[in-house]
Amino acid sequence: DEPTNHLDLEMRHALTLALQDYQGALVVVSHERHLLKACCDDFLLVADGQAQPFNGDLDDYADWLRQWRLAQQPKPEPKTAAAKKPAAPATPAPKSGALSNDDKKLLRKNLEKAEKHLATLQTQQAALEATLADNSLYDSSRQSELARALAEKQALDVALASAEEAWLAASEAAEGAIL
Questions:
Q1: pLDDT for 26-84, tens place per residue?
Q2: Residue whose C-alpha is closest to residue 6's, from 174, 163, 136, 179
Q3: Percent helix, strand and coil across the chain, each rounded to 5?
């Protein structure tokens, strides 16, 4: 599940090569289009409580998803003759290519910021895990130090989950701008 969330570019590339060389079968769940395009022979569509083969590529999936989202929107109720008013001009939804270069730069900048924040928290988590792996920390004479470390770990886990959600949102927004 989300195999590339915590990997740098070199490790993502190594994972892609390893998956391409793998002779068995596996299920890959990821939002990273490059990995999916490079490693997947077949796609499954999981929607409306079902999983079924998807006959298409990721571009076809993006088209399907747009149509599905439109179908999920509530239908407006018909107006009665007495209640009819001139409709306000609809603001067309921006097309994926309709974003300005500045908007795309901002999306990329937000993604980079989210990635850096996530990396910082992961570094802190690794250091804290190393501290918690020290057996001497569990001596009765260091109970208060252990309690502080465990409280810090709990807070860090919450912050990390939040940062991962922010990274995912920024990643999806950036990908949506490219579609």
A1: 888 877 778 888 888 888 888 888 889 989 888 888 888 888 878 877 766 665 554 44
A2: 163
A3: 65, 5, 30
Per the CB < 8 A criterion, the answer to whether 96 and 176 are in contact is: yes
In 3D space, the residue among 44, 156, 48, 171 whose CA is nearest the CA of residue 114 turns out to be 171
Q: Tell me which residue of 32, 22, 28, 36 sits closest to 1, measured CA to CA.
A: 28
Alpha-carbon separation of residue 19 from 7, 29, 30, 35, 151 (angstroms): 15, 13, 13, 9, 38
**What pLDDT, in 10s, does the model give residues 157-170?**
888 888 888 888 88
Cα–Cα distances in Å, from 170 out to 96, 138, 140, 176? 15, 40, 44, 10
Q: Model confidence over 97-140: pLDDT tens digits?
A: 466 777 778 888 888 888 888 889 888 888 888 888 888 988 89
Measure Cα distances from 64 to 43, 61, 70 in Å: 13, 5, 10
Whole-angstrom Cα distance, residue 58 to residue 64? 10
**57: which residues sit within 8 A by CB, 6+ positions away?**
37, 43
CA distance 143 to 137: 8
